[in-house]
Amino acid sequence: MSHYYPIMLNIQGKKAIVVGGGTIAERKIRGLLEADADITVISPVATEQISRWAADQQIQWKQKNVEPSDTDGAFLVITAVNEPAVNQKVQDSADPEQLLCRSDDQTKGNFILPSLFRQGKLTVAVSTSGASPGLAKRITKELSSSYDESFGEYLEFLDRCRIHVKSVIREPERRKSILTQILDQEFQDMSGQEREQRFLALCSEGGREDE
Ligand SMILES: C[C@@]1(CC(=O)O)c2cc3[nH]c(cc4nc(cc5[nH]c(cc(n2)[C@H]1CCC(=O)O)[C@@](C)(CC(=O)O)[C@@H]5CCC(=O)O)C(CC(=O)O)=C4CCC(=O)O)c(CCC(=O)O)c3CC(=O)O
Ligand SMILES: NC(=O)C1=CN([C@@H]2O[C@H](COP(=O)(O)OP(=O)(O)OC[C@H]3O[C@@H](n4cnc5c(N)ncnc54)[C@H](O)[C@@H]3O)[C@@H](O)[C@H]2O)C=CC1
């Protein structure tokens, strides 16, 4: 069996179509909102949350049954209707090159969604390749307890350091050495101020910073 190919997509401003307005559609829309997609929902009926998002203009809602032209120009399509025949109709209207998730049958679309949690810039995504979405959810829940807010702050620090090192240290070996040293557990455990100072000391060790 071939594996799914995991990818972190930038879908900011990209046209995303969600067909269906039930709780499953709502969950998929929440994920698309976090990624700032340009979302249109097609469904005659929708959950309270979906109607609120539409009223707040966070998404567009076409209150009708899906038609073949609804998938035109979409970067990504998710179909989450409780009737397989309708999901099939959506699939038939979609171009094979478009990204399509069939919430009712993973074998028919070309992508599936993982369970995930975020802590700042960290995203932990877990997939069971569709074998047990419930288990994927349990695993992310278990993992999330290992990454609290301080981890998000530590990652912010690492991000700033990396930008700094890339702009001031020319030599690839030194760059790598500094960026590896700040991954030591002791750095993670330090206070914000202490780690900042230790980092600057590392940068000036072994001669002045490259110009
Ligand atoms: C293939 C996939 C396609 C897709 O939708 O992307 C798919 C398909 C199906 N899910 C079904 C059931 C459930 N799905 C969940 C939950 C989630 N499902 C998600 C993803 C995926 N679900 C993809 C595979 C992911 C993977 O395994 O890697 C998560 C991870 C992400 C998300 O939805 O964003 C989200 C957790 C979010 C979180 O972490 O909180 C729960 C648990 C719950 O709701 O609490 C149940 C009940 C328990 C169980 O079944 O395990 C059914 C059967 C419907 C029926 O009974 O007919 C189908 C259809 C089928 O199997 O054919
Ligand atoms: N992937 C996943 O994580 C899961 C997927 N499922 C699948 O997702 C399906 C949807 O689940 P729910 O949201 O709970 O169902 P639901 O019954 O709450 O919602 C179905 C939605 O489809 C809309 N709809 C019906 N006909 C339509 C049409 N012709 N055009 C556009 N919209 C139409 C309805 O207005 C309704 O909003 C389930 O039938 C099941 O196959 C179920 C559980 C989890």
UniProtKB/TrEMBL annotation:
SUPFAM superfamilies linked: NAD(P)-binding Rossmann-fold domains, Siroheme synthase middle domains-like
**Keyword check for Oxidoreductase:** yes
Signal peptide position in this chain?
none
Query: Which InterPro entries is this protein grouped with?
Result: Met8-like, NAD(P)-bd_dom_sf, SirC_C, Sirohaem_synthase_central, Sirohaem_synthase_N
Catalytic activity annotation: precorrin-2 + NAD(+) = sirohydrochlorin + NADH + 2 H(+)
| Keywords assigned by UniProt, alphabetized | NAD, Oxidoreductase, Porphyrin biosynthesis
- Where does the Siroheme synthase central domain lie? 119-144
Name the residues that span the membrane. none
Its UniProt pathway annotation is: Porphyrin-containing compound metabolism; siroheme biosynthesis; sirohydrochlorin from precorrin-2: step 1/1
The enzyme's E.C. designation: 1.3.1.76
- What PANTHER family does its record include? SIROHEME BIOSYNTHESIS PROTEIN MET8 (PTHR35330:SF1)
Q: NCBIfam families, from UniProt?
A: cysG_Nterm, PRK06718.1
The protein in question is named precorrin-2 dehydrogenase
Supply the source organism for this entry.
Answer: Fictibacillus terranigra
